[in-house]
Amino acid sequence: FVQTTPLDDLPFFADCSGRFLSRISCAMVDHFYTEGVEVIREHEEGNSMFILHKGTMQVLIGTQDVGRIAGPACFGEMA
After folding, report:
1. Running DSSP on this structure, what letter comes out for residue 44?
2. Which of 31, 34, 47, 52 has its Cβ near the most Cβ atoms within 10 Å?
């Protein structure tokens, strides 16, 4: 039996063991964001890493549209 996690498709976690991914997955908290909801704000201190499993997010600097993030992808605090 091969256990899969929401992290399996992310290049960021490509070199991690299945056991490690399973443990992280158990600690994850799911959130659902609707269109127009601000997830993180530029220059604010963060303590969370976000995983966009599906969909697309708009990236703004101030009010200027500078790009998109498409899932699967990681963003936020990863230090």
Report:
1. S
2. 52
Q: Residue 30 and residue 60: Cα distance in Å, rounded?
A: 23
Looking at the DSSP assignment, which residues form a beta bridge with residue 56?
A: 70
Are the beta carbons of 60 and 67 closer than 8 angstroms? no
| DSSP 3-state of 18 | helix
pLDDT for 1: 44
38 vs 53: CA distance, rounded Å: 17
pLDDT bucket at 45, cuts 50 / 70 / 90: confident
Alpha carbon distance 71, 56 (integer Å)? 6
